[in-house]
Amino acid sequence: MMRGFERKALFAVMLFMICQTISGQSLYDRSNMSIGKIGSDGYVYNRSNMTIGRFKSDGYIVDRNNMTIGRIKDDGSILDRSNMMIGEVNNNGEVKDRNNMHIGRVKSDGTVVDRNNMTIGYAKGIPIAYAAVLFFFRLIE
């Protein structure tokens, strides 16, 4: 049987885990204004906290109606809904378009920069490929 302290500690841990799942990792524009967030379950929310899509564990990306709109392959290739390659992101965060042209980078601290190294947003704690999809390829909007 749990004592009062143990029950309170368990409740605090559970509450923390629920809050982490609900709150997710935030996305910001270049002015540091919130533009949405990604939950630990892969769901993407806009700034009004409405679900706009999801990154699934199998690499597929779906819209709010659960329709496939893209895919992230294990090699970093990013495909559109027609399975056509629209770009790629490598492990260093470099983002290239379908013509292999450098279009930006997701830095290790989550800063997202364009081809001219100008900051276009922030995605701290978010997988590099997710940030590339959201900021450069706009599959989820």
Describe the protein's topology.
Elements: H1 4-23, E1 25-29, E2 34-38, E3 43-46, E4 51-55, E5 60-63, E6 68-72, E7 77-80, E8 85-89, E9 94-97, E10 102-106, E11 111-114, E12 119-122, H2 128-137
Antiparallel strand pairs: 1-2, 1-12, 2-3, 3-4, 4-5, 5-6, 6-7, 7-8, 8-9, 9-10, 10-11, 11-12
Q: What is the C-alpha radius of gyration, as a whole number of Å?
A: 17 Å
User: Helical residue percent?
Assistant: 10-25%
| Strand proportion | 35-45%
Count of spatially separate domains:
1
As laid out across the biggest beta sheet, the strand order is 1-2-3-4-5-6-7-8-9-10-11-12
Shape: globular
How far apart are the termini? 49 Å
Mean of pLDDT: 86
**Number of helices, where a helix is a run of at least 4 consecutive DSSP H or I residues:** 2
Compressed to H and E, one letter per element, the order equals: HEEEEEEEEEEEEH
Kindly state the number of beta strands: 12
Uncertain segments: 4-22
Largest sheet: 12 strands, antiparallel, barrel
Structural class: alpha+beta
Describe the structure.
- The chain has a twelve-stranded antiparallel barrel.
- Residues 4-22 have low confidence and may be disordered.
- The protein contains two helices and twelve strands.
- With 141 residues, the chain is an alpha+beta fold.
- The chain has helices at residues 4-23, 128-137, and strands at 25-29, 34-38, 43-46, 51-55, 60-63, 68-72, 77-80, 85-89, 94-97, 102-106, 111-114, 119-122.
- The protein has one domain (4-137).
Give the gist of this structure:
The protein is of the alpha+beta class and 141 residues long. It contains 2 helices and 12 strands. The protein has helices at 4-23, 128-137; strands spanning 25-29, 34-38, 43-46, 51-55, 60-63, 68-72, 77-80, 85-89, 94-97, 102-106, 111-114, 119-122.
